[in-house]
Write a structure and sequence with these properties.
InterPro entries: Bact_solute-bd_prot1 (IPR050490), SBP (IPR006059). The protein is built from 22 helices and twelve strands. With 459 residues, it is α/β, with parallel strands linked by helices. The chain folds into two domains: 209 residues, Periplasmic binding protein-like II (D-Maltodextrin-Binding Protein, domain 2, 3-Layer(aba) Sandwich), CATH 3.40.190.10; 152 residues, D-Maltodextrin-Binding Protein, domain 2, CATH 3.40.190.10. It is globular.
């Protein structure tokens, strides 16, 4: 199955959002505890003041599946509890495994599909529709979407002109978080360009701290690294072509991006634990080891999206003071803006399932989770003041201000077999490249072979 350009609404002028985000983060880099308290104290439009009408569903039972774990899962259960309170329905959270399409397939084959599933890839939504699993959203859910979401976020949840997905959660995947103490001790400055990033990395390394944690045990952060470099360097038109496999992974633009990545990945002393250590580092550890260890953390920087804050929260570091953030530097003429997200899709059509989708499309639901931190909503009617600290408030502000001006995660647009399966496809190919960053040609050949097979079969 190919990614259709009409499904992912994108524009070539991401410059404005990148500039806005850079300015926002600069303003909030030194946010104080007072600002943090102010952010959580001014919340309006919360669940207590309902803005969406829901039916009474006394006795109804629902299951909702997602791959979320830990604090993220706990926070989402708070949202589900509010839905239960308002409707009288009982909602059970079903932990899913990646790739979620395979998980759902086994559930459906066994006659026990969940009522709703949160799918992290537009490609997975299209597969669910093609397999006949996904059910269109009803009139009330569509009404909430049109009221609360930009056209771009509506488009990436639609297939064949019908609305199937509610993008309940978004992610800004163009951020690098850093240990303020390590940066200060090294005299390093927040970089604006890739060359600046290399300069800062060298300063950190010379100070005795390893520059980066890379979550190589999880393939998906490696795809995000690549996408930011590629979007900035090759530009949005090439990005869209590669996302749809209209150009091959053997294209010179891919060679250039991998060669650029190797400027960091190829320096084993720049990676916590070296390349072999990086390949054994899972995402949560990549974050926590950056913000623990006092003056000698295992790394000074970690790349990933706004959701990094959930894992920072597991340490004693405070966002805005101990843990700071800058936009992914410009590799080409423009800094990249890559977004991702999770969409609620109905698998068992019922009054209760439609009501849950409607609730998740409302600002009421998103406001509850926004207040708990580590979460970003594309819902433009969630009050910015709901986010618990100034840094997150500005990230949310920048996302809403962008409207449709973003590029969606490339691997999430791909067929699941290529862009979303552990140990296969792009995830595995980039892990192999991290293991041997000198083999650019070999990495390109493997990526193209796997992409051609997946796009050709639509799996």
């Amino acid at each position: 199955m190919r990614s259709k350009s009409s499904t992912v609404r994108t524009h070539s002028s991401a410059t404005a959002l990148a500039a806005l985000l850079a300015g926002a983060l600069a303003l909030t880099a030194c946010s104080s505890g007072d600002n943090d308290k102010k952010g959580s104290g001014e919340t309006t439009g919360t669940a207590a003041g309902s803005t969406v009408t829901l039916p009474k569903l006394d006795g109804a039972k629902l299951e909702i599946a997602a791959v979320w774990t830990g604090q993220e899962q706990k926070n989402f259960k708070r949202v589900l509890a509010e839905f239960e309170k308002r409707t009288g329905a009982k909602v059970t959270f079903v932990p899913a495994q990646d790739p979620i399409i395979n998980f759902l397939g086994s559930k459906i084959a066994g006659g026990q599909p969940p009522d709703v599933a949160l799918l992290p890839q537009p490609g997975a939504i299209r597969q669910a529709v093609q397999k006949g699993w996904a059910k269109p959203l009803g009139a009330e859910a569509v009404k909430e979407l049109r009221k609360n979401y930009s056209q771009g976020w509506q488009d990436i949840g639609s297939v064949g002109g019908k609305q199937y997905g509610v993008y309940y959660k978004a992610a800004n995947k163009s951020l690098i978080w850093y240990n303020a103490t390590a940066f200060g001790n090294a005299g390093a400055k927040e970089p604006k360009t890739w060359q600046d990033l290399l300069t800062a990395s060298r300063a950190v390394y010379d100070s005795g701290v390893t520059p980066f944690s890379v979550a190589g045990a999880d393939g998906w952060p490696l795809t995000d690294w690549f996408e930011n470099v590629y979007l900035s360097q090759a530009g949005p038109e090439k990005y869209d072509q590669l996302a749809q496999h209209k150009i091959k992974w053997t294209d010179p633009s891919v060679k250039r991006a991998l060669t650029t990545l190797a400027q960091i990945w190829g320096k084993k002393d720049y990676l916590a634990g070296g390349r072999s250590g990086a390949l054994q580092t899972e995402f949560p550890q990549s974050v926590t080891q950056t913000f623990t260890g006092g003056d000698q953390p295992k790394s000074a920087m970690v790349y990933e999206g706004d959701f990094v804050q959930v894992n920072i929260g597991e340490t004693k570091a405070k966002v805005g003071t101990d843990a700071k953030v800058f936009p992914f530097p410009a590799v080409g003429s423009t800094a990249p803006v890559v977004s991702g997200g999770d969409a609620a899709v109905i698998l068992k059509d019922s009054k209760a399932a439609q009501a849950l989708a409607t609730f998740l499309a409302s600002p009421d639901a998103a406001t509850i989770q926004a207040k708990l931190g580590g979460y970003l909503s594309p819902n433009k009617n969630v009050p910015v003041s709901a986010y618990p600290n100034a840094v997150q408030q500005k990230i949310a502000e920048a996302l809403v201000a962008s409207g449709d001006d973003f590029r969606f995660d490339m691997s999430d647009q791909a067929p699941q077999a290529f862009g979303g399966t552990p140990g296969k496809g792009e995830w595995k190919d980039l892990q192999d490249f991290l293991k041997n960053p000198a083999d650019v040609a070999g990495a390109q050949a493997r990526l193209e072979k796997d992409a051609a097979a997946a796009y050709g079969s639509g799996s």
